[in-house]
Amino acid sequence: xxxxxxxxxxxxxxxxxxxxxxxxxxxxxxxxxxxxxxxxxxxxxxxxxxxxxxxxxxxxxxxxxxxxxxxxxxxxxxxxxxxxxxxxxxxxxxxxxxxxxxxxxxxxxxxxxxxxxxxxxxxxxxxxxxxxxxxxxxxxxxxxxxxxxxxxxxxxxxxxxxxxxxxxxxxxxxxxxxxxxxxxxxxxxxxxxxxxxxxxxxxxxxxxxxxxxxxxxxxxxxxxxxxxxxxxxxxxxxxxxxxxxxxxxxxxxxxxxxxxxxxxxxxxxxxxxxxxxxxxxxxxxxxxxxxxxxxxxxxxxxxxxxxxxxxxxxxxxxxxxxx
Amino acid sequence: xxxxxxxxxxxxxxxxxxxxxxxxxxxxxxxxxxxxxxxxxxxxxxxxxxxxxxxxxxxxxxxxxxxxxxxxxxxxxxxxxxxxxxxxxxxxxxxxxxxxxxxxxxxxxxxxxxxxxxxxxxxxxxxxxxxxxxxxxxxxxxxxxxxxxxxxxxxxxxxxxxxxxxxxxxxxxxxxxxxxxxxxxxxxxxxxxxxxxxxxxxxxxxxxxxxxxxxxxxxxxxxxxxxxxxxxxxxxxxxxxxxxxxxxxxxxxxxxxxxxxxxxxxxxxxxxxxxxxxxxxxxxxxxxxxxxxxxxxxxxxxxxxxxxxxxxxxxxxxxxxxxxxxxxxxxxxxxxxxxxxxxxxxxxxxxxxxxxxxxxxxxxxxxxxxxxxxxxxxxxxxxxxxxxxxxxxxxxxxxxxxxxxxxxxxxxxxxxxxxxxxxxxxxxxxxxxxxxxxxxxxxxxxxxxxxx
Lengths: 323, 452
Hints:
The complex is a heterodimer. Chain A is α/β, with parallel strands linked by helices. Chain A has two domains: about 1-45; about 45-320, Purple Acid Phosphatase, chain A, domain 2, CATH 3.60.21.10. Chain A has helices at about 1-45, 80-90, 110-120, 130-135, 145-150, 160-165, 170-175, 205-220, 235-240; strands at about 45-55, 60-65, 95, 125, 180, 185-190, 195-200, 225-230, 250, 260, 265, 270, 275, 285-290, 295, 315-320. Chain A has a six-stranded mixed beta sheet with strand order 1-16-2-3-4-5. Chain A has a six-stranded mixed beta sheet with strand order 6-7-8-9-15-14. In chain A, strands 10-11 form a two-stranded antiparallel sheet. The N and C termini of chain A lie far apart (about 85 Å). Chain B has three domains: about 1-70 and about 420-450, no CATH class; about 80-185, no CATH class; about 205-410, no CATH class. Chain B contains twelve helices and six strands. Chain B has helices spanning about 1-30, 35-45, 50-70, 105-115, 120-125, 165-185, 205-230, 240-265, 270-305, 335-370, 375-410, 420-450, and strands at about 75-80, 130, 150-155, 315-320, 325-330, 415-420. In chain B, helix 3 (about 50-70) packs antiparallel against helix 12, helix 4 packs across helix 6 (about 165-185) and helix 8 packs antiparallel against helix 11. The longest helix of chain B is centred in the C-terminal third of the chain and has 37 residues, at about 375-410. Chain B starts with a helix and ends with a helix. The interface between A and B is medium-sized, with 29 and 29 residues.
């Protein structure tokens, strides 16, 4: 009798446990579908992230819009939603921090058309990301592959040789009114403030200093009263090199905000930082302080080939004030 | 909007369950005796698996939606980092008003900066509130607190649900910072405000007066700044006092000694006759003033002589100062007032005499001088050079002032933004779980009641 009573109780417990597990699985599936569905719908639009930065070098308020990692995606027909919002936000400068095109896509018309539309809004600068490099240079811009391509070694390296290479994208961008910065800088006057924008082509840490060091120093140590904005695609360089200064504002992209953002833990994974890169002290997404100056990393705008969860595509708006 | 509705759904379900169960118990309890009632309660399993599953699942669903809704509420702390803030003042010494953080002007500017669509100033303002970070107690003197930190809260409403809460609060605080700096920052227009006069039409001695006035206004500005920041050193390694000393010396040597001496030495004037007439007329007026001051001085002296000796005795009155200490105060009597007036009139007479003598000196020099074009040219060149130097001093003073202002206003307002805390969310979920547990228990009990 005792054994029978125990079996009945056990059976009842198993039934309850099964019911509990089935409910849990059902709720988990429903929650996952809801989360993925909500994110899918949410990711069809981009958010605007505002940052406020101060620098005593500015005499008037300056607004910069950073567009990054679009990967040839479109928000509305020909990105008209984005163009409309950017127009309304009235930027003084627009900076594209790379991967606006996708190396796998055959045509880059959407990206070019976006650049063309926005070049009427404000002076625009374009920095190459790994996708542009992959598509138009055929090789990754690491020290090893560059040295091999040009036959360089530590004694005969000439960084200018890399810059002499021309490509179709640069021609199209320049024709549409966008200035392409390849390990070079440009000065633009916004109101009563002179702004130097430096764009890095060799953003891979292995080649950065060897190929961009000279031009970076020239940019950094001339016209020191100008506001200095350093734009780079891959932020890993900021973890590897420690010059006196990286400028008054640094802009980067590349990481797509870690693709999935877990509440309390942050971004899930990046190629350079591995799992939970934020916890490992890597620069992934958002605002960081590098040598006392702000580094802003955009989580990018790609919404097609990656599963963004809790990580809506974004355009970044940086307001630079005197105080 | 959707997240707000979804968050209310589990709450409504629990509420409904509670109401239905309570009503069931109410209607069925009519046929139940008190002892049966107690028996039913005792026989119900209040920690059964079914109840726990229900509580966990519904709390989980509530937690997810509550987290989604929590994203629509953001808090920012605005900290004032300048010395006057501790006295509840703005940086220019006027009274600080925390309501300005969310005033119409700031909200309007935030809407403009964010290019927010489909929202009015009033609608957005209704979602914002501001209060001191540390409240203090106005009823208890020992707990008075002047807050230098203020909390700004944003809770989205149906009109503002489409806006990103963090962006709203970022832009509100940023717009407030702009508003504050624009309204309360140092004013640099105290010098060089007026257009320059045409020196070629002015009398040389009037130019001297004008240049003196210009340098004095720069000096006043610099002394004012030096009082605010006595130890401030500019990037050119100079201080306000050092710049003021340089300008003061320039004024004494270049304007008073060189220019004025040159003019007097050569009796230079644009129109000698007119200028001498003007000085003579001035002298006549000053002489009248002198006579009046003389008469008043004599009158005061006569009144003092007439004062009775008994009335001049000093009366000492015990009184106390601001810190509450007693001292013997000397009362003023009529003779004190008369002697003060006599001194003033005597000083005025001396000042009038000096003015007349100065004017006579200039008139004498002018009358004795012969036309000298080279002296005129020399004076014009010196005026141009002094004027240029004053311009440079003005720029130097303004730059030093701006530099000091930048140094002082930099980070004068710091902002930190935070969403709803995890602890806060957990607290809400625990309260909800408790409520749903009660509802589930009441439901379980209600099921045990026999139908009528």
